[in-house]
């Protein structure tokens, strides 16, 4: 509590009231930190471990929250799991070991990066397949139409270019 | 009394919407000019009464009418008046009414600004908008009535607006978002009207384009604001989480971007008509799908409104009717739409086609990722999560490919590129961009960074490409420069593309160089944050209109000089006794310094989170430029009356191919 | 052929609609435990009422073990408590408590005030055992069978309806397995 809040020119009563209000505020904050940003102040053994902590706490999901990762949630389970994550990192466990540890206990649900399994093949390979499919069919259709057009009458290249010049002038 | 009037006004609006859906179409079928012309006044009536409805709701908020359930749940007498008004769209029911209001506003606008279109066509477009309005007004009235009363026992005080929403972000973000979302229904209505009429000509594309671009611009602002708001309000320094609700706003934006480009090609080259039709339907479907996902409880999200499967079912039926109906119409009538294909492999058409393919794939990918947990669960295969790591892994490579093509697009000719010329344009640009991108990480951070290299190269590449295009347009035959000769829609395109580049640069820099420090601080202690010294100078108690707070005093220094005083707060809102963090942020064009208070640790010590975020403001600035570009393009002369007479003559030279059924 | 292609978007949409419809009847909040079918891990934690005594997995004796996660900071545990006092009447089960990240004195006072239904409670101050079995809140109840395998995890307070629907069928099944094994 800040004693700077008490001005020695005011009456004792006012000081007392300020003191009470500050204390009450403090208690209320302690109890109602629902949307406070969660701040753990862990001491990591080195910078690399700290960075791994930051990355992993974003890769892991808080099991009980409405779609938040461990880094952003202030719920009790998230606070506990962050502490456990810290302990595991300090013990020297590798990233994969930590992920396996969490998945063994909480299931795949707790991973924001879905593991590559039979069930997630469509998820991981789908985008590439869709993109190649699109581009492939576009090329295919264009080539087919291109072949058909070769049979049509066409201007000479020189004539074509001058015509293009006229048409494409913006 | 007033809430009931608001309720009745909404019902009258429904009546207008019903008439609007039916009467003009009868007019078209029977060639009855009077009925056809009824579309415009009917859309005015629709707008008027829905407008009255929402105004009455806003009024009830300002007079603290807590007998209305929605107001009791979302407001409080201590709430500042500007939040009382924005609380109108702070909850599900009110936001639906706002959605409907935005819809009627767009409908009315289409009615006014369509003198250049055929009457029958406008009648069809407005009728389709009327049908959409019927669907949504019914939904609001039946499942989400904001005028529901709590009589006879109503509370003397309201439960207050969620403190997270008591912020300027709430005043602007949802309205912009809904204006954008809803605006895409205009493009949809145009597409359906074209299918109904059995023809799509250049005029159709010309008039569809500004509405679509306007909607896209609003949506860009809405998304940028949402991201910015989350950043400064939630206190964890993040700006995009790939949360389902975020994805649901992003997908229509991506599809809408593809649509804008398809429309451009349809207008200028009379091709890509099927793409345009399907994209218009797709974008609108994504809007409906989004409404469903957010409000039905099918997907877990931090942002979800209070969920209700009953509402979900209704929205699903709406989705089925609107999308199913339009896709069926497409399947049956699409054969009437011909798209002569007159371009070669190396052409602007093809470049845009590749870009559209990437955008559509990206949209489908995000949809897949968002729905995948649901798919796995529905198939009984357990529960999985799909989050930021997945989306980043699949989305970023696609965007990199897209950005490469964005550099080529503005500079490659329509129909058939001239290889020599293209290389000439791109040579200097590509070399410069690569050098710039390679040098930048060294200049900024003293060592090489691959992702920064890629990001900065692409950003530079995109900007230089549109710059070159503008310069090409400004150069006259005699070698002089005349910038007023550059058409406004070119400038718009350049600004919008530049906006993308700005956002890319912002994202690249922040992701690669941000720094986070979590630390306990006692009064007087200092922390080093990327060259900035931040000193904690104790706290002050402050009082706001409906909250009280402990305010940290953080002095920021750099190179010994005082930069700013940051004042992060821990607030307690009087009504709900809810605690909330307000971060202290100092923003410049080049970096943000961000401090958030954590927990009090006794003796005025606090745990704190401090961030250094370089270039982060560029992310949202880019969004602003994108929207600016869009609005500039709409202001282009080609949409104004005087130009049209000459244009009409030009069209007679290029006959348009229409095949009758 | 071409006309069929035109129907593809519609077909895809119908599939999507079916998925969404199914989704309305699912519960995205329901969280099955990942530990089902896995053995209860061993542990070394003090007994709540007598912290000098260390307990391990073997101390949870009984054919069917119910491990109830509780704490004084858990409001719903209070609602559950009276039912726990009822269910221990069933001779087939043995009820043990896991006092999860709690204050010991508060916990002892709680048990004194509301009665102690447990054979004993494990004092898991750091939440180590809780973490090892995938606890994410309280109250939660685990059913462990005679071979030490976790058969079920129920998250939420137990009441009559829950007991009838969620627990009794499983207890019957396990009892039948035990009987078969014995014969």
Give a quick set of tags describing it:
heterotrimer; A: 170 residues; mainly alpha; 60% helix; elongated; B: 661 residues; alpha+beta; six-stranded antiparallel β-sheet; four-stranded antiparallel β-sheet; 10 strands; 63% helix; globular; disordered C terminus
Contiguous runs where pLDDT drops below 50 for at least 5 residues of chain C: none
Class based on secondary structure composition and strand pairing of chain A: mainly alpha
End-to-end Cα distance of chain A: 70 Å
* Helical run tally of chain A: 6
Oligomeric state of the chains present here: heterotrimer
Mean pLDDT of chain C: 90
Beta-strand percentage of chain C?
Answer: 15-25%
Uncertain runs of chain A are: 1-9, 22-37
Describe this structure in words.
The complex is a heterotrimer of chains A (170), B (661) and C (183). Chain A is mainly α and 170 residues long. Chain A is built from 6 helices and no strands. The termini of chain A are far apart. Residues 1-9 and 22-37 of chain A have low confidence and may be disordered. Chain B has helices spanning 2-30, 33-37, 39-62, 69-74, 81-86, 92-112, 119-143, 168-197, 202-234, 244-269, 273-296, 309-333, 348-378, 388-408, 419-445, 450-474, 488-513, 617-634, 641-653; strands at residues 515-521, 526-529, 532-543, 547-558, 561-566, 569-573, 579-582, 584-587, 591-600, 606-614. In chain B, helix 11 (273-296) packs antiparallel against helix 12 and helix 17 (488-513) runs antiparallel to helix 18 (617-634). With 183 residues, chain C is α/β, with parallel strands linked by helices. Chain C has a 5-stranded mixed beta sheet with strand order 5-4-3-6-7. The chains are: A mainly alpha (170), B alpha+beta (661), C alpha/beta (183).
């Amino acid at each position: 509590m800040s004693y700077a809040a008490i001005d020695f020119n005011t009456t004792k009563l006012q000081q007392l009231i300020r003191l009470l209000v500050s204390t009450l505020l403090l208690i209320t904050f302690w109890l109602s930190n629902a949307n406070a940003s969660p701040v753990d102040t862990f001491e990591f053994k080195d910078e690399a471990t700290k960075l791994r902590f930051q990355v992993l706490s974003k890769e892991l999901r808080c099991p009980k929250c409405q779609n938040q990762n461990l880094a952003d949630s202030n719920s009790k389970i998230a606070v506990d799991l962050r502490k456990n994550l810290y302990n595991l990192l300090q013990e020297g466990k590798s990233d994969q070991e930590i992920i396996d540890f969490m998945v063994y206990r909480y299931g795949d649900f707790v991973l924001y990066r879905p593991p590559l399994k039979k069930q997630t093949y469509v998820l991981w390979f789908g985008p590439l397949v869709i993109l190649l499919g699109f581009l492939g069919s576009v090329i295919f259709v264009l080539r087919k139409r291109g072949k058909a057009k070769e049979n049509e009458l066409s201007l000479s290249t020189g004539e074509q270019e001058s015509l293009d010049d006229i048409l494409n002038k913006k | 009394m007033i809430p009931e009037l608001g309720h009745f006004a909404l019902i009258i609006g429904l009546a207008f919407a019903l008439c609007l859906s039916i009467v003009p179409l009868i007019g078209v079928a029977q060639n009855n000019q009077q009925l056809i012309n009824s579309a415009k006044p009917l859309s005015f009536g629709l707008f008027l009464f829905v407008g009255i409805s929402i105004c009455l709701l806003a009024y009830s908020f300002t007079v603290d009418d807590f007998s209305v359930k929605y107001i009791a749940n979302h407001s409080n007498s201590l709430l500042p008046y500007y939040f009382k008004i924005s609380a109108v769209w702070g909850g599900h029911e009110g936001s639906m009414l706002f959605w409907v209001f935005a819809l009627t506003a767009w409908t009315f606008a289409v009615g006014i600004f369509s003198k250049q279109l055929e009457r029958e066509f406008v009648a069809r477009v407005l009728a389709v908008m009327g049908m959409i309005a019927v669907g949504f007004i019914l939904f609001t009235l039946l499942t989400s009535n904001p005028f529901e009363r709590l009589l006879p026992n109503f509370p003397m005080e309201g439960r207050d607006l969620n403190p997270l929403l008591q912020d300027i972000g709430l005043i602007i973000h949802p309205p912009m978002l809904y204006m954008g979302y809803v605006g895409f229904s205009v493009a949809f209505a145009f597409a359906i009207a074209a299918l109904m009429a059995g023809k799509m000509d250049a005029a159709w594309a010309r008039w569809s384009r500004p509405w679509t671009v306007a909607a896209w611009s609003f949506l860009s602002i809405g998304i940028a604001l949402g991201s910015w708001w989350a950043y400064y309000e939630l206190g964890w320094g993040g700006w995009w989480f790939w949360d389902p609700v975020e994805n649901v706003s992003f997908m229509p934006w991506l599809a809408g971007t593809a649509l804008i480009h398809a429309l451009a090609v349809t207008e200028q080259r009379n091709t890509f008509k099927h793409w345009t039709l399907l994209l218009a339907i797709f974008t609108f479907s994504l809007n409906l799908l989004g409404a469903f996902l957010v409000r039905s409880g099918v997907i877990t999200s931090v942002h979800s409104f209070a969920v209700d499967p009953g509402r979900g079912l209704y929205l699903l039926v709406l989705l089925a009717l609107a999308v199913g109906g339009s896709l069926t119409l497409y399947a049956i009538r699409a054969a009437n739409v011909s798209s002569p294909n007159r371009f070669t492999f190396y052409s602007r058409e093809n470049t845009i086609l590749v870009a559209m393919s990437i955008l559509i794939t990206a949209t489908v990918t995000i949809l897949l990722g968002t729905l995948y947990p649901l798919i796995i669960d529905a198939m009984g295969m357990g529960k999985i999560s799909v989050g930021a790591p997945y989306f980043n892994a699949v989305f970023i490579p696609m965007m990199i490919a897209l950005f490469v093509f964005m550099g080529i697009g503005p500079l490659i000719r329509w129909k058939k590129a001239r290889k020599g010329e293209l290389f000439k344009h791109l040579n200097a640009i590509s070399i410069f961009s690569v050098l710039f991108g390679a040098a930048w990480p060294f200049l900024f951070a003293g060592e090489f960074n691959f992702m920064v290299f890629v990001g900065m190269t692409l950003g530079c590449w995109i900007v230089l490409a549109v710059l070159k295009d503008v310069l090409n347009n400004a150069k006259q035959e005699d070698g002089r420069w005349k910038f007023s000769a550059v058409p406004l829609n070119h400038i718009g395109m350049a600004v919008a593309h530049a906006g993308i580049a700005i956002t890319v640069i912002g994202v690249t820099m922040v992701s690669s160089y941000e720094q986070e420090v979590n630390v306990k601080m006692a009064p007087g202690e200092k922390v080093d944050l990327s060259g900035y010294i931040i000193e904690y100078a104790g706290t002050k108690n402050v009082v706001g209109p409906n909250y009280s707070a402990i305010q940290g005093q953080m002095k920021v220094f750099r190179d010994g000089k005082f930069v700013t005083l940051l004042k992060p707060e821990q607030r307690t809102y009087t009504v709900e006794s809810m605690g909330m963090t307000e971060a202290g942020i100092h923003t410049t064009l080049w970096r943000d310094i961000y401090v958030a208070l954590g927990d009090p640790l006794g003796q005025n010590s606090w745990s704190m989170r401090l961030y250094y975020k370089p270039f982060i403001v560029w992310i949202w600035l880019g969004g602003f430029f994108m929207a600016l570009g869009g609005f500039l393009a709409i202001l282009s002369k080609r949409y104004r009356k005087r130009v049209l007479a000459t244009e009409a003559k030009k069209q007679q030279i290029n006959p348009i191919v229409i095949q009758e059924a | 052929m071409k006309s069929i292609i035109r129907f593809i978007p519609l077909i895809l949409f119908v599939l999507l609609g079916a998925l969404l419809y199914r989704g309305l009847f699912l519960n995205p909040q329901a969280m099955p435990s990942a530990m089902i079918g896995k053995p209860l891990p061993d542990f070394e934690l003090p007994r709540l009422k007598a912290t000098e005594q260390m307990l391990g997995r073997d101390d949870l004796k009984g054919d069917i073990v119910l491990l109830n996660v509780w704490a004084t900071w858990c409001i719903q545990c209070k609602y559950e408590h009276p039912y726990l006092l009822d269910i221990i009447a069933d001779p087939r089960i043995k009820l043990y408590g896991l006092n999860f990240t709690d204050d010991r004195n508060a916990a002892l006072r709680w048990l004194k005030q509301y009665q102690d239904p447990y054979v004993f409670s494990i004092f898991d101050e750091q939440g180590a055992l809780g973490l090892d079995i995938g606890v994410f809140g309280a109250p939660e109840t685990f059913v462990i069978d005679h071979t030490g395998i976790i058969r079920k995890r129920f998250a939420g307070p137990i009441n009559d309806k829950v007991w009838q629907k969620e627990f009794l069928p499983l207890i019957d099944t396990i009892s039948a397995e035990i009987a078969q094994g014995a014969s």
